[in-house]
Amino acid sequence: MDLTELPNSRTEADGSAVIRVLSYNVRSLRDDEDALARVIRACAPDLVCVQEAPRFFRWRKHAARLASKCDLVVLSGGATAAGPLLLCSLRAFVERTEDILLPLTPGRHRRGFATAVVRLGGVRVGVLSAHLSLDGPERLAQSELLLERLAGMDVPYAIAAGDINEGPSGPAFRRLAGGLQDCWAAAPWGGEHTWVRSSPPRRIDAVFAGAGVEVLACGVPSPLPGVTPEDLTRATDHLPVLATLRLPAPS
Description:
By secondary structure, the chain is of the alpha+beta class. The chain has one domain: Deoxyribonuclease I, Chain A. Helices cover about 25% and strands about 30% of the residues. Strands 1, 2, 3, 4, 5, 12 and 13 form a seven-stranded mixed beta sheet that branches. Strands 6-7-8-9-11-10 form a six-stranded mixed beta sheet. The radius of gyration is 16 Å and the shape is globular. The mean pLDDT is about 95.
């Protein structure tokens, strides 16, 4: 599926906003950062929900460098959210941001959410990037916290994206899809599977949208202009998920 099939980001005459949202696990930038930047730039996103952003030495510098290579800016997150990071284009007007650390289970990795409220055109939207636990019960509890956090953002529209660490049949994924729209299920486009390093391939990364958001298309984008199949392999160990969404103008 060619990227030219997707609508471009725009503000429509009635004030509605058409936006592109990308979710991408970047494995702490341990792979080919230039290939990663080529993939992100080719997707032309308004918002990028990153997982596994650098969290340690000079992490802000690394996040800023990636954003600059992608013609984006850092919105929120990073080490202060335990890995999730938000990037945005200059089209987004930032209203507020908040990084959230989730309850820590002893012996497990700390998790968090990177969140922001932005305006795109004349439309306000809350966005959240997440990377859920490898442990099933903890992952389900984190999915509940994610839904609670979105509900408390006091915005007409909400978007959450991230590495769910389980497929659509898992309890946490089902809980999220029960409270939000699973964008791939709503309007599948492009590829489905985001984890192809083992057999069978799986869809463990997703974009979710709240009530009122019109999902135009969602999936793994390929081919991408200026991006080779090797770039996708070298960029990181996950494949990206790109969603095109329409946010109706406020009534």
